[in-house]
Write a structure and sequence with these properties.
Layout: H1 4-51, H2 62-73, E1 80-85, H3 107-114, E2 119-124, E3 130-140, E4 143-153, H4 155-203, H5 221-270, H6 275-307, E5 315-318, H7 319-336, E6 340-345, E7 350-353, H8 355-371, E8 378-386, E9 389-396, H9 430-440, E10 444-450, E11 454-462
Parallel strand pairs: 6-8
Antiparallel strand pairs: 1-4, 2-3, 3-4, 5-7, 8-9, 9-11, 10-11
Length: 469
């Protein structure tokens, strides 16, 4: 049974069945108890009424017995019983033979009567229905002088119980059928919006992620489900858009060096060349291959970082020493472009991390600062610690970054179109890789920039082991 509405109807009907059976059983038990209690109470009233008249020497006439039964039962039943016994249990010969027959006097009832105790019994009657009997002693001066025995057939009680069971046997199935039908209709109506949402979701594909699922407008659980699904579709749309843009940009970045490489090789093969010319062509081809390898390596690093499987060889790393290595390696580049490169490396700052990954992070940030600084500008590199966190600041006096571009610059293949004149533009992966490495170390990168005044990139890495955020 795969349909939710069918399962809901089945569960609802089953629960209702159990509830009705329990309620019916309880009602039947209460009805039986109430009928039995009323019969016993009425017999007790009849017996007491007759015992008050049993002190005299005269015998009871049938009219007196009928009047006593009518008084407590509301009518004089045909199958009524009355007998008067002496203390020894012998029937009073003055009483006429009852038309309903005689009832036995049990030894238990006789013994109880001798002790002044009344006894209720259910005994077989002259017909097929049992008889409820009350044996009550007549006491005088603390001793028993007579026994009064009254009884009534339980035919009406049994018939009442049977009618009750027949009524329940008819009403219960009808009620269950009506309840199941109503439950099925209600479930179908309640789940109709789910069918519409499923149909709308079925129409949405990777090419139509901009479509949305309509809600119920009632603010209920289904409306919240539609809102959640629409939020998920929005995230998928954004992710697919980024993947498409990433694929297009990666293809473009790979196509450029491959086109250059192919063109140079084709030109070299058109006519005989001197060894020096072949060497120049091969050198240029090797540079393009290095560029492709660097680009692929960066893409692979980003993919592994995005998937959370970036390998990290975590060991204590002195960021001050690492920054000094990066400083001397890139100072030559800064000097060649007439850029002053300063450093503030005062004291060791040790963090747990991957030395090669952290070196690439610092290299990318410093290389990016030099790339966007015009000749005569200044680039500064500093390392410090603050509140258990290592802080690396890379600042430049470049053109700065507009506020709306501060987050975009960390996306793959995103470039700010304000590099220094004569500077070779990179693939646009440096800052993305830097942020991925910082995140893998449980840290973050924060950028502060003022257009026309320069930018400062600050890397925060915890000095104690911490899971990547």
């Amino acid at each position: 049974m795969k349909s939710i509405r069918a399962r809901l109807t089945l569960w609802y009907t089953s629960l209702l069945t159990v509830t009705l059976v329990l309620l019916g059983g309880t009602a039947y038990a209460l009805l039986s108890y109430s009928l039995s209690h009323e019969v016993d109470a009425a017999l007790n009233g009849v017996a007491r009424s007759l015992t008050e008249r049993a002190h005299g020497p005269s015998a009871f006439v049938p009219a007196e017995v009928d009047e006593a039964f009518r008084r407590f039962f509301g009518f004089s039943p045909w199958n009524r019983y009355f007998q008067l016994f002496d203390p020894l249990g012998h029937r009073d010969p003055r009483q006429p033979a009852p038309h309903s027959g005689r009832l036995p006097l049990s030894g238990e009832a006789l013994n109880n009567a001798a002790n002044g105790i009344s006894t209720y019994e259910t005994v077989p009657g002259s017909e097929e229905h049992p008889v409820r009997v009350l044996t009550m002693p007549v006491m005088e001066g603390g001793r028993m002088v007579n026994l009064v025995q009254v009884g009534m057939s339980l035919k009406s009680v049994l018939e009442t119980r049977t009618r009750f069971l027949l009524i329940m046997a008819v009403l219960f199935p009808v009620g269950l059928v009506l309840a199941a039908t109503g439950g099925l209709l209600l479930a179908r109506r309640a789940l109709r919006p789910v069918d519409r949402m499923a149909e709308a979701a079925r129409r949405i594909s990777a090419e139509h992620l901009a479509e949305r699922i309509g809600g119920t407008g009632a603010g209920d659980e289904l409306d919240r489900l539609a809102s959640t699904l629409n939020e998920m579709l929005g995230r998928l749309d954004t992710a697919f858009t980024q993947v498409r843009r990433f694929s297009a940009d990666a293809s473009h970045e790979l196509q450029t060096p491959l086109t250059i490489l192919k063109g140079e090789l084709e030109v070299a093969l058109r006519s005989p060349r001197t060894p020096e010319e072949y060497q120049a062509v091969l050198k240029s081809a090797l540079e393009e291959i290095d560029r492709i390898a660097h680009l692929v390596e960066g893409l692979l690093l980003l993919a592994r970082a995005e998937a959370g499987v970036l390998r990290m060889d975590r060991r204590p790393v002195d960021l001050e020493q690492l920054a000094e290595e990066v400083y001397w390696r890139l100072k030559v580049l800064a000097d060649s472009r007439s850029i002053r490169f300063d450093s503030e490396l005062a004291e060791p700052v040790v963090v747990p991390g991957d030395r090669e990954r952290l070196r690439r992070l610092l290299f990318n940030l410093v290389d990016n600062a030099i790339k966007y600084t015009r000749p005569g500008g200044v680039v500064r590199l500093s390392v410090r610690s603050a509140d258990g966190t290592a802080v690396v600041d890379v600042s430049d006096s470049g053109p700065g970054i507009a506020a709306e571009d501060l987050e975009k610059i960390f996306l793959p293949f995103q470039r700010v179109p304000m590099t220094a004149p004569g500077t070779e533009r990179g693939a646009g992966l440096g800052l993305s890789i830097a942020r991925s490495i910082a995140t893998a170390h449980g840290g973050r990168i924060q950028v502060r920039s003022f257009p026309g005044k320069g930018s400062t990139f600050s890397v925060y890495i915890p000095m104690s082991p911490e899971a990547p955020s």
